[in-house]
Amino acid sequence: MEIRIQSTGAVMYWSEFRDLLLAQNPSELITVAPQTEEWLNAHGADVVLEGPQATGGDRYQYSQRSGVEQVDGKWYTKHILGPVFTDRAAQGDQPAQTAAEQEAAYKAMKDAEQAKSAREDRTKRLAASDWTQITDSTADKTAWATYRQQLRDITAQAGFPWTMTWPESP
Questions:
Q1: 72 exposed, middle or buried (CB, 10 Å; 0-12, 13-18, 19+)?
Q2: 55-83 residue pLDDT tens
Q3: CB half-sphere exposure, 149, CA atoms < 13 A
Q4: What is the pLDDT of residues 110-150, one digit of tens each?
Q5: How far is 9 from 120, CA to CA, in rounded Å?
Q6: What is the distance of C-alpha 95 from the center of its chain?
Q7: Distance (Å, rounded) from C-alpha 102 to C-alpha 8?
Q8: Are 33 and 45 in contact (CB under 8 A)?
Q9: Which residues contact 103 (CB under 8 A, 6 or more apart)?
Q10: Where are the alpha helices (DSSP H) in the chain?
């Protein structure tokens, strides 16, 4: 359970809030205190409920938490589509980088990860069909050879690595 301190706006977990209250008033029995909204309000805090995840975006985005917000008198976690990039000044040996440069690097990294995953899947499919190419196999070698070549050619598909059509095995 997350708690929001009314006086400061700080958000913390129940155990942190309990420790804070114990530090302020060691004589109060907090370890078994009821974690109700009324009890929390009496102690200067609000319950933070889980808000809806952000939706939409593209394959490079995901829902990420971005603080809390009050809706109809109750506090909820707030989510946005991310990642969020901002221009960055040079720091030490790190050069300055624009938000667009960071985003391009991030997308290239995600594309490379997806391509690696697709190639690993292809390798497993090829390995699973190796038996068809041994000399004493009764499989239709031509059909299986065609299938295996289609697997090897998967990286040439227009949608690679995100939207490929895997060939059907014979």
A1: exposed
A2: 999 999 999 999 999 999 999 999 999 99
A3: 6
A4: 999 999 999 999 999 999 999 999 989 999 999 999 999 99
A5: 47
A6: 27
A7: 34
A8: no
A9: 85
A10: 14-24, 37-42, 99-128, 141-152
Angle CA(21)–CA(28)–CA(68) in degrees, nearest 5? 30
- For residue 147 the two structure tokens come to 């299938």
List the beta bridge partners of residue 79.
Answer: 65
Q: What is the pTM (predicted TM-score) of this model?
A: 0.72
C-alpha span between 65 and 80 (Å, rounded) = 6
**Token digits for 34?**
């009821």
Q: What is the DSSP string of 21-44?
A: HHHH-TTS--TT----HHHHHHTT
Contact 47, 37 (CB under 8 A): yes
Sort strands 62-71 and 2-5 into parallel, antiparallel or unpaired: unpaired
CB 79 within 8 Å of CB 71: no
- Tokens for 67? 């603080």
Handedness of CA 57, 59, 65, 71 (dihedral sign): positive
